[in-house]
Design brief:
- The chain has 318 residues and is of the alpha/beta class.
- It is 44% helix and 19% strand.
- The protein has helices at residues 14-26, 39-55, 91-112, 125-136, 148-163, 202-213, 215-223, 230-244, 289-311, and strands at 6-10, 31-35, 61-64, 76-79, 117-120, 143-145, 170-171, 174-175, 183-184, 190-191, 194-195, 249-258, 264-275, 278-282.
- The strands form four sheets. A six-stranded parallel sheet has the order 3-2-1-4-5-6, sandwiched between helices. A three-stranded antiparallel sheet has the order 7-10-11, covered by helices on one side.
- α1 packs across α8 (230-244) and α5 crosses α8 (230-244).
- The radius of gyration is 19 Å and the shape is globular.
Length: 318
């Protein structure tokens, strides 16, 4: 990777802009380049963030790519671009619309930043990560979906709320696809190393698991006109930071499985080691029968989305 670290962010809406702001405050990279169809809005946000970076004496500069060709030689590109689900729109409609947007964006990334690591944030997350992988031609280690860190942080926040203590010491674990079929793993979740089952009752744990699965919808219910962006953006920024700093830390991320956990050609959230080369290692944790069944259902849901894309002849040459 080059030393003058450059991060591209495609989509300067709430999530994309908050990723940029978080990275600028950390001083994680030398340059952040925003790309959005609303160029003036992106310019305004970039100027505002550059001034915020100056306030905290961060060296990060935030600029705007007016054309895709301006998004060159990025080390990491975060993709948040996509359409929200509008009234009367089916999930399949949304899938096809966002797949087309992702395809166009990823073709640009592959052309102008061919060495980049792509972090997908657009929904439906697992399917869009699959599209990005196929359309980029990149190795699977360089196309990673952001979901597991977000879902795990939601579960950790709910555990802290339930307990009333342990903030900052809670390690929650969530695998599987980013949706209602995600797989929260209480067995691998701890408070300062203490198993969750030692501090909460089974019914309390089940309540937390259910709330985690619907954590995004709960926020949408309150906001009415939008969805969560602080936690999703911070989760993506954590991934970018781990890659740029080559930390080799383990985070739950969405990657294409090639035999791991017994699955092939499907994207799902699993623990991975993040470093300068992206998802450098996939960690296979032992799942019991119940967890394996939930993971299977989660993979099946994602396979359904991928099959919808294939049946619509989305992928050329298939």
């Amino acid at each position: 990777m080059s030393q003058g670290k450059r991060v591209g962010i495609i989509g300067a809406g709430n999530v994309g802009a908050t990723v940029a702001y978080s990275l600028a405050m950390l001083g994680s990279c030398h340059e952040i380049i925003l790309r959005d169809n609303k160029i003036d809005v992106a310019k305004g946000k970039a100027l505002d963030m550059s001034q915020a970076a100056s306030a905290v004496r961060s060296h990060t500069v935030v600029s705007v790519a007016e054309e895709m060709s301006d998004l060159v030689d990025c080390d990491v590109v975060v993709v948040t671009a996509g359409s929200p689900r509008l009234p009367g729109m089916s999930r399949d409609d949304l899938l096809m619309i966002n797949a087309k947007i992702t395809k166009e964006v990823v073709e640009g990334i592959a052309k102008y930043s061919p060495q980049a690591i792509i972090i997908m944030v657009s929904n439906p997350l697992d399917a869009m990560t699959y599209v990005a992988l196929k359309e980029s031609g990149f190795d699977r280690s360089r196309v990673i979906g952001m979901a597991g860190i977000l879902d795990s942080s939601r579960m950790a926040a709910f555990i802290q709320e339930k307990l009333g203590y342990g903030g900052g010491q809670i390690r929650a674990s969530v695998m599987g696809g980013h949706g209602d079929d995600m797989v929260p793993l209480p067995r691998y979740s701890t408070v300062a190393g203490v198993p969750l089952s030692d501090v909460l009752t089974q019914s309390e744990i089940e309540e937390i698991v259910d709330r985690t699965r619907h954590g995004g919808a709960e926020i949408v219910g309150y906001l009415k006109t939008g969805s969560a962006y602080y936690a999703p953006a911070k989760a993506a920024a954590i991934m970018v930071d781990a890659i740029l700093k080559d930390t080799k830390q383990i985070h739950p991320c969405a990657v294409c499985l090639e035999g791991e956990y017994g699955y092939n050609d499907v994207v799902s959230g699993v623990p991975v080691m993040l470093g300068a080369k992206g998802a450098e290692k996939i960690i296979e944790v032992t799942l019991d029968d119940k967890e394996s069944a939930m993971f299977a259902q989660s993979c099946k849901s994602v396979e359904g989305l991928i099959n919808t894309l294939k049946s619509n002849n989305f992928f050329e040459g298939e």
